[in-house]
Amino acid sequence: MSIAQRAKDVYVTELKTRLEAEHRDEFVAIEPESKSFYLGGTFIEAALAAKQAFPDRKAFVIRIGHDAAFHIGAGKL
Predict the structure, then answer these.
(1) 28 near 39, Cβ under 8 Å?
(2) What pTM value is reported for the model?
């Protein structure tokens, strides 16, 4: 299973309810092996916090309360 899928599983089963109630629109970086997570107001803040805690492991960043971390492109024209 990929790092992304493992992190998403941790998010859904252990973090989603609490984080969406208290931290909607923020970012969370999840290191799936330890199930540790790091919040940030921006993508880079969350990613750097995870990297500092686990420099030799990969984490996956999720935007809390959204299907994607970023939306690219314009709305209806």
Answers:
(1) yes
(2) 0.88
The H-or-E segment that residue 26 falls in is none
Range of the domain at 18: 3-63
Instruction: Summarize the confidence of residues 8-19 as an average pLDDT.
Output: 96
Give pLDDT, residue 19: 97
Does residue 55 sit within a domain?
Answer: yes
Distance CA 69, CA 65 (A): 10
Average pLDDT, integer, range 49-74 = 89
b (16+ CB within 10 A) / e for 47-75: bebbbeebeeeebbbbbbeeeeeeeeeee
